[in-house]
Design brief:
seven-stranded mixed beta sheet; 64 helices; eight-stranded mixed beta sheet; alpha+beta; about 1600 residues; single chain
Length: about 1600
């Protein structure tokens, strides 16, 4: 049982229950039986939605009516039941009918409702046998089948009709029902008498006087008998008489003979024959026995058909017609359904027609005609004449199975109607055609009434429709052929017209092919809207669709809309519909307002479905000027927007309004996107509206761009000036200041643009889908600082990216950014960090970043799209970069350059692009770029940083130095570590294996926290090593058994972690448990030795910084302040582990830290070495001196040596920091001067680098505090950066002495094999400058250059050369190496101090050379000149000096020896101040021609005897309070040295006799000059008696000394 049935039966049960409950006990069973009888025929669906109380009410209402109705009269009630009045309710109007049971009731009631146009919702009728008792109360009920005695049979109707509220409507409907019921009862009651009358007339017929033969009579009798056999529903009878009156005949009914419905008309029916049409008159008077036709009235009983009329004529003796017996009624269904051959009269009529036709019996044609007649409408067969029927049958036979339309018209004999037979091919027949045919026929015959129709379909290809056109008079003129032509045109479908149009436009073969494909393709709605000729155009577009080209369009102005702003757009799309929400915003962005839209699907015969979307739109009148031109531009632009090749935004308005192509509008769009990146506050929407307001200015801006970069004829600067001036002139009419600023900024940006690939095409000859601009940021006003030297912006709908470079030779990674709004800000921050990091290598800093704008969410597709965007970005960069071929610069094709040659472009991996280097190198190869696979380091052929561990090893150099400066050797002593990362990472994994004495207490990454409270260095090392070698390990893989008591591995996702006693002790906490983040925080704050950062994220900030300032939201919960970090040392293998201010705060409280760019420079340095080596070797490969395979092998074979070179740089760079730092606050002023000098040149922005302001520096000086190490790190980097740049001059790079720097920058195998090729290295100059700059800063400290420049005014090249001479003569390299070799053997402080002395001496020597160098000497000659003297002096110093002084030196040397310094080194360092005189001594020896030994002896002893050495000490020890005093002090020393040199020369000149006895000679000289010396001695005595000296005293004393030497010199002559 279905749910509905179940529900239905439940409702009926409930109705019964209500009856049992509420109805009077006597009647319960009867009422229940009545209700069941009434509702038993109700459909389940009708029952399902009703409630039991209403059904109960309705049943009871009917029952009561039934019980009251004791007569045979019908009872009709039409009412709206209400609970208040009737006890039940219904939303419909209810009709209750109780009538005597008789035939035709139900049909007739239904017909009445239809006539009154009233819809019924439910019609229940139930005939019942009813038994009443003596009181006329009902005592029994049963259905008609039951064998029950009954007083009466009644039919009960329960009908629900549309709710009627108008009382008059209810009344008239009730009246109609009543009259119908009367009709039915009259017809039914008289049926028997009428039938008897028919039988008696039938018997009488043969006896009537007529001159017909037997056959005809028997035919008539047979027909009448057939009628009497229930083949005709008899409804009425009357006898008529035909009597002559005044030359006419009158037909008059005999009223008393009326039976059945004929009783209804009481007036006498008389009619004159002359009123009838001719044919009818003849028929009336003819001798035919029967008259068969239809009456004019529609039956209200049984069937709503026109009532049939059967007349049987009566004759007088002469055979004249004198009257008729007229029967009316309806032929029963058998008349219509059975074969015509079974109906008497028809059978013979057909036979007669068949005899008239020419076909032999049994032939196909004969059978066909017979079939046509057999199936012909019965009423027509009865009424039409035989000749008419034959004509129709032959006509139909001719068109059978052909695609033709035919019309046959027959006039009704009584002039009441035309009977029209219309034959059309059945597939053409539809409601529309039927309606149109009705209209055509009504017009043709002037009929105002509705044309009735009946349609007949058979196996035939033709559909036949019988139309009856009712007229008042059918005697009118008409031409069947004309009407038929109209019908043919009406039946000519849209498809027919389409075929003609296709054949016309495409020729017969193609036309037919397209017709077959498209004849049934279009939807009804399309055909209603579109003319077939227009559909041909649509078909042409649809034919252009394929998998590559899924969209086609038409953009046109309908002719009807020629004077309005309406345009139309049709989009044709393959396979799937276009969604309105996709396309609407696009159209609106073109400035079109969509006012109407219709989609059509087109299903071709091959089963494919394509779609047409039709839009009507309003266009701005500005865009209507030259519609054809605009149309083409718009179509191209919209296609590109649809294909994601153009962005969908308001710049597209300029296509219609500004006369730009979609691609030209993209220039403005790209610059707008760039404006967003450089921090311009206007939103893109605002910029779009500016150009929408001034489309002509937009066009001028695009023109300025096009002219500037035109490949064929780039405009001269003068023309460009003019074009800009024109735009500025237009600005006079721009009222809004913001609009003015936007337009000016566009002009500025185009002026600042140096190159673009806008005019380049790809290999298919299409313009590229992306555009890149090379910009010089310094030319754009209000750019965010710092300003890169160059920048390339790449724009496409898929990707935007920017590449910033600090200089022409720059390197740095490309990052896949997710900061769509401000990725340039991110990149700018990174390039700044890269700048300071790159100081050890040849290139300065650069950085790139790109964002993908159409990322899918699915992972694989996401990565793939990222790679595609990366490729576009790389191409955008290479498109506008110069190439080098055979040493010559080759500019990029189709690029107009407004700058110098600029071929150096290298990239590297960064966040998100770690694996992309090979892709980049592939593109570089495709472009034949000179760097080849040196373009992107980190590719598959290159140094694997993780395998080499180079970044970690570089940073470990810093860690070792920090430990060393605490006098700990971390390679032999255990130390505790907290570390960030896990063993799978490069920096973490390699770093945590760099000492076997690591005791790793805590480590954490984003997933786990590893805790080992009392680790064992020996057992944990191999376990970490195992994890490192496992592919993709995590802390989970660590062997828990090796973790000390109380430790473990915890998930960062845990709610809380309970602390073991050991963990509490380690952390110094009493808490029982902590959240994972609290545990990490506590670990960072407990006391331990080293924090090693090998992870991602920023964990340490300054107390004054907020988490938002840091910009690493993921770690906000565990970040601590620098002052709270419990480590002694911070080693930064990873980037950005601490903010710069965080480091400074940590360092200020005594923590040891450099910066990330100092510590992890190893990776960059290694990559740069790789690039430079590849550049060298790629040159050899292209010359054919090496194969690619040999190159790769050679590259790998040098891995260890490259590593050595890199680590040496790391070691030296941290070393110079330590030496600079060792002097502390005493040298703060020098550093401040260095900062000021850089600021003055615009090379340094203190705020960006977090360096203290002058006020803060003054406070530090007062407090005796120096700059912290992180701050010094920045300064060291800047020193190198600035110096590197300034040393790229021919004085340095072309100096043969410096070629060794180039050679030594390559590993040994290359030095040996390819020494000569190095001279052709494109970066030869930069390599030399970089190496020299690094040497100078590492050796001499960060402010050496500035100081030398301030003291002597010399330029960088000059200073560098003097430094080279000085350091070579003083054997600085060798001494430095031998001191460095003492690492971990002597206290670090001692080492540092010795190196400081060495640095100081070389600095003084450099200054000496700057002042006194013979410029004509080369560096080599200078060294050759002085080196032998230095050798002599350093070996024999003790013999040259006075014993007392010598002892003093030996004492100092012994102090060092006691601290563990080898004697040799100690002696050298202590002797330095004396050895400084080597230059003077060498020059005296050269000038005087005496031996070095003699000169030295004289020099030192004279100095000692005259107290010059003592005086020098006084000068050196004189405190200075400002820079000028420092300069004065330095100049006094120089002055004293100079005087000592002059006096020595004088003394030597006075020598006679035995040279060896120098003491004696000096005695003699001093005696001879006693007078002059007296004054000097007095001066010295003055100095010796006072405790402090002021600068004036020194000036006077030195003046005396100068006079003395001058006078002695002359006197000696």
């Amino acid at each position: 049982m279905t749910r509905n049935e179940g529900q239905a039966s439940v409702i009926l049960d409930n109705v019964c229950k209500l009856i049992q409950k509420k109805v009077h006990a006597d009647n319960v069973l009867l009422v229940e039986k009545f209700a069941k009888a009434l509702y038993s025929n109700m459909s389940k669906e009708d029952l399902a939605n009703r409630n039991d109380s209403d059904l109960y009410g309705a049943a009871l209402s009917l029952w009561n009516a039934l019980e009251k109705n004791t007569t045979d009269d019908a009872v009709i009630r039409v009412f709206n039941p209400e609970v208040a009045k009737d006890g039940w309710q219904s939303s419909h109007t209810i009709v209750e009918i109780i009538a005597k049971d008789m035939p035709f009731l139900v049909d007739s009631v239904r017909m009445a409702m239809t006539r009154e146009n009233i819809a019924s919702h439910l019609l229940l009728h139930c005939p019942l046998k009813i038994q009443r008792d003596n009181n006329a109360k009902i005592s029994g009920l049963s259905n008609l089948k039951a064998e029950q005695e009954s007083t009466s049979t009644k039919t009960v109707f329960f009908i629900e009709i549309d709710r009627q509220t108008d009382a008059s409507v209810i009344a008239s409907f009730k009246k109609e029902l009543e009259s119908v019921l009367v009709d039915v009862s009259i017809a039914v009651d008289d049926w028997q008498p009428i039938r008897e009358k028919l039988v008696s007339v039938t018997k009488e017929v043969p006896k009537r006087k007529h001159n017909k033969n037997k056959n005809e009579v028997s035919e008539a009798v047979e027909f009448l008998d057939w009628l009497a056999k229930d083949n005709f529903t008899l409804m009425g009878y009357r006898e008529y008489e035909l009597t002559p009156v005044q030359g006419d005949y009158q037909l008059k009914g005999k009223m008393d003979t009326s039976l059945g419905l004929m009783k209804n008309s009481t007036d006498e029916h008389t009619r004159l024959l002359s009123e009838l049409p001719e044919f009818a008159r003849q028929e009336a008077l003819s001798s035919n026995l029967l008259v068969l036709t239809k009456t004019n009235s529609v039956s209200r009983v049984h069937r709503p058909a026109y009532i049939d009329y059967v007349g049987i004529k009566r004759f007088d003796d002469e055979g004249n017609v004198v009257g008729e017996d007229r029967f009316i009624g309806l032929f029963s269904s058998s008349f219509y359904n059975n074969s015509a051959a079974d109906v008497p009269v028809l059978k013979t009529k057909i036979n007669r027609i068949m005899d008239m036709c020419d076909f032999a019996k049994g032939t196909h044609a004969y059978k066909a005609v017979l079939n046509i007649l057999e199936t012909y409408p019965r009423d027509e067969l009865v009424q039409a004449r035989e000749s008419e029927l034959l004509e129709v049958a032959m006509g139909v036979l001719q068109i059978q199975e052909r695609d033709m339309c035919r019309l046959f018209v027959r006039k009704d004999a009584y002039g009441r109607f035309f009977s029209c037979m219309v034959y059309v091919p059945r597939e053409r027949y539809n409601t529309a055609l039927r309606r149109e045919t009705q209209d055509i026929l009504a017009n043709a015959f002037n009929s105002d009434e509705k044309v009735e129709f009946t349609t007949y379909f058979s196996e035939s290809t033709l559909a036949r429709t019988h139309y009856t056109v009712r007229v008042t008079d059918n005697n009118i003129e008409y031409n069947v052929k004309d009407i038929e032509n109209n019908l043919v045109e009406a039946a000519r479908t849209w498809e027919d017209k389409l075929q003609s149009a296709l054949l016309e436009s495409a020729g017969e073969a193609r036309g037919n092919e397209l017709n077959r494909k498209y004849c049934n393709a279009f939807a009804r709605s399309y055909k209603d809207e579109v003319l077939p000729s227009a559909a041909v155009v649509d078909i042409e577009k649809l034919e252009l669709l394929n998998d590559e080209n899924k969209l086609e369009m038409l953009f046109y102005r309908p002719q009807e809309e020629a004077n309005s702003n309406i345009v139309r757009l049709s989009l044709f799309h393959k396979d799937e519909p276009i969604h309105l929400s996709d396309v609407m915003p696009m159209l609106e962005n073109f400035g079109l307002r969509v006012v109407g839209e219709t989609p059509y699907s087109v299903k071709t015969s091959d089963g494919r479905i394509n779609w047409i979307m039709d839009f009507s739109m309003l266009i701005d009148s500005k865009g209507m000027a030259d519609f054809d031109k605009i149309s083409a531009r718009f179509r191209a632009a919209l296609t590109n927007v649809w294909g994601n090749r153009l962005e969908n935004d308001g710049f597209n308005r300029l296509v219609l309004m500004g006369g730009l192509t979609g691609r030209e509008a993209s220039i403005l769009r790209a610059y707008a996107k760039y404006m967003r990146q450089i921090g311009v506050t206007f939103s893109q929407t605002y910029i779009e509206s500016t150009f929408a307001n001034y489309p002509h200015i937009a066009a001028q801006i695009v023109n300025l761009f096009a002219k500037k970069f035109s490949v064929k004829s780039p405009a001269s600067p003068k023309t460009l000036e003019k074009l800009s001036a024109q735009i500025y002139l237009e600005l006079e009419n721009v009222a809004n200041l913001d609009d003015d600023r936007i337009i000016r900024l566009y002009v500025d940006m185009i002026v600042a643009t140096l190159r673009t690939n806008y005019f380049q095409k790809d290999e298919t000859g299409q313009f590229k889908s992306y555009v890149s601009f090379k910009v010089q940021p310094s030319l754009i006003p209000d750019m965010p600082l710092p300003l890169p030297a160059f920048e390339i912006f790449v724009y496409s709908p898929r990707v935007e990216g920017v590449h910033l470079r600090g200089g022409k030779v720059a390197r740095g990674g490309l990052r896949w950014s997710d900061r769509r709004e401000d990725f340039r800000t991110e990149v700018l921050g990174l390039v700044k960090a890269q700048q300071v990091k790159n100081t050890v290598i040849v290139p300065v800093g650069s950085k790139g970043g790109f964002v993908c704008k159409q990322l899918p969410s699915e992972r694989e597709a996401f990565i793939k799209e990222g790679q595609e965007c990366y490729k576009i970005f790389i191409r955008g960069l290479l498109d506008i970069t110069d190439n080098i071929e055979r040493g010559e610069i080759v500019p990029p094709a189709n690029v107009t350059r407004h700058d110098e040659d600029d071929p150096y472009l290298v990239v590297a991996a960064d966040k998100g692009t770690a694996t992309f280097s090979d892709i980049a190198n592939g593109i570089a190869n495709e472009y034949n770029f000179w760097l080849g696979d040196a373009f992107a380091s980190g590719g598959s052929v290159g140094y694997d940083h993780k395998k080499m561990g180079i970044t970690a090893k570089g940073a470990w150099e810093s860690v070792k130095r920090h430990f060393r400066e605490m006098d700990i050797d971390c390679q032999t002593t255990d130390f505790t570590v907290v570390a960030i990362g896990d063993m799978a990472g490069d920096v973490f994994g390699n770093g945590m294996l760099l000492s076997k004495h690591i005791r790793l207490q805590v480590a954490f990454n984003h997933m786990h926290i590893f805790v080992d409270p009392t680790p064992d260095a020996a057992t944990s090392y191999p376990e970490r090593e195992r994890l490192f070698n496992l592919p993709r390990s995590s802390w989970e893989d660590y062997n828990k058994d090796l973790i000390s008591a109380g430790g473990g591995i915890f998930s960062r996702a845990a709610k809380s972690i309970s602390l073991s006693p050991e963990m509490k002790k380690m952390l110094g906490t009493k808490k029982a448990s902590m959240t994972p983040n609290e545990l990490i925080k506590a670990s960072l704050m407990m006391e331990f030795d080293l924090l090693w950062n090998g992870g991602i994220g920023t964990y340490i900030k300054n107390s004054h910084e907020t988490d938002a300032d840091v910009g690493d939201r993921a770690n906000d919960a565990l970040r601590i302040n620098g002052k709270d970090l419990g480590a002694k040392i911070l080693g930064e293998g990873g980037n950005l582990g601490a903010t710069q201010l965080g480091r400074i705060e940590f360092a200020a409280k005594g923590g040891r830290v450099n910066t990330d760019f100092i510590d992890n420079v190893g990776g960059v340095a290694c990559s740069d070495n790789e690039v430079n080596i590849k550049i060298l070797l790629n040159g050899l490969v292209s010359e054919g001196d090496l194969t690619r395979k040999q190159r790769d092998e050679l590259l790998y074979s040098m891995t260890d040596e490259v590593s050595e070179l890199v680590l040496k740089d790391c070691y030296r760079q941290t070393h110079t920091l330590s030496i600079t730092q060792s002097k502390g606050a005493s040298t703060l002023k020098e550093k401040i001067r260095f900062i000021h000098a850089l600021e003055k040149e615009g090379k340094l922005n203190r705020a960006i680098e977090f360096l203290p302001t002058d006020e803060e520096l003054a406070e530090r000086a007062a407090a005796g505090k120096d700059l912290t190490r992180p701050e010094l790190s920045v300064l060291v980097s800047y020193a190198k950066m600035v110096l590197k740049e300034s040393l790229v001059t021919d004085e340095i790079t072309e100096n043969p002495y410096y070629r060794q720097l180039l050679v030594k920058s390559f590993p040994r195998p290359l030095r040996e094999k390819f020494n000569d090729a190095m001279d052709n290295h494109p970066l030869r100059k930069e390599i030399i400058a970089t190496k020299l700059a690094n040497n100078i800063v590492n050796d001499m400290g960060l402010n050496f250059m500035v100081r030398m420049n301030e003291e002597t005014g010399a330029n960088e090249a000059e200073i560098a050369m003097c430094y080279s001479i000085a350091s070579e003569i003083f054997e600085m390299r060798e001494t430095w190496s031998s001191i460095s070799a003492l690492d971990n053997k002597i206290p670090a402080a001692v080492q540092t101090e010795m190196l400081y002395q060495l640095r100081r001496t070389v600095r003084r020597a450099t200054r000496w050379f700057l002042r006194h160098r013979n410029k004509s000497q080369t560096i080599e000659q200078a060294i050759e000149f002085f080196a032998p003297t230095f050798k002599d002096l350093s070996e024999n110093l003790n013999t040259y000096m006075q014993d007392k002084e010598h002892e003093c030196l030996t004492g100092k040397a012994n102090e060092l020896v006691e601290k563990g310094v080898p004697k040799q080194i100690a002696k050298r360092i202590i002797d330095l101040s004396s050895l400084f005189s080597v230059m003077d001594i060498a020059e005296i020896a050269h000038n005087s021609g005496r031996s070095v030994a003699m000169v030295s002896n004289t020099y030192f002893k004279l100095g000692s005897r005259m107290g010059l050495h003592w005086f020098l000490d006084q000068i050196t020890n004189q405190p200075v309070s400002n820079h000028w005093q420092a300069l004065a002090r330095a100049s006094y020393r120089e002055e004293l040295d100079w005087q000592q040199r002059t006096l020595s020369h004088v003394v030597l000149n006075s020598f006679e006799g035995d040279e060896n006895d120098v003491d004696n000679q000096i005695d003699q000289w001093m005696a001879s000059q006693d007078l002059l010396l007296q004054r000097w001695k007095q001066m010295l005595a003055e100095f010796k008696t006072s405790q402090s000296h002021d600068f004036a005293k020194f000036s006077v004393a030195l003046r005396e000394l100068m006079l003395l030497s001058h006078n002695c010199d002359t006197s000696g002559k």
